[in-house]
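Quick one: structure for this chain?
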Amino acid sequence: MNWPSKREVWTLAERLMNSIFEAIRRIDELAPEFPGEWVEARDKTMEGLQVGDYMERLVIHSQQHRYELVSVRAAIGRSRPTDPGDTDPNTNELYARTWYQWRLLEAFLRRAEMVSELIGLNDEDLDRKPSPELVAGNERSIREVCEHVLRVQKWIMSGVEDGISAYRNQTFL
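Got it. Here's what it folds into:
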């Protein structure tokens, strides 16, 4: 099957995600104090907004433009499908062929939620283990949990790659 290229789509997605991680990291390095710097610190070269205003814009800016992308997709006939049985109006192919991409997005969102649990920690926190009486059988450190997630992801990827390869290499009589 000759699929259309998605290289630029994934490159753009990666650029968007890397840029937000860079912004989050830089703001965390600056560590604005609340309420002082959050409320009183103002930009002197642009709009004179408070630091908190800029950070609020960082939060809502992507959300606003997500809705713009929804609108543009609809306008170009590429709305997000609501069911794998839906048909792409441009190609008349079932969305089931690309339904896995929506599942991947769910994996990405869940990982982002997991990563949000790292916010506010310091490097020493990564290796601290909880007291056994406070956890039900899980005495792993934060780093150990994250390393486990990375190992399991490697295992999952191996299974996906091996499964697809085996399926594509089988001969049908």
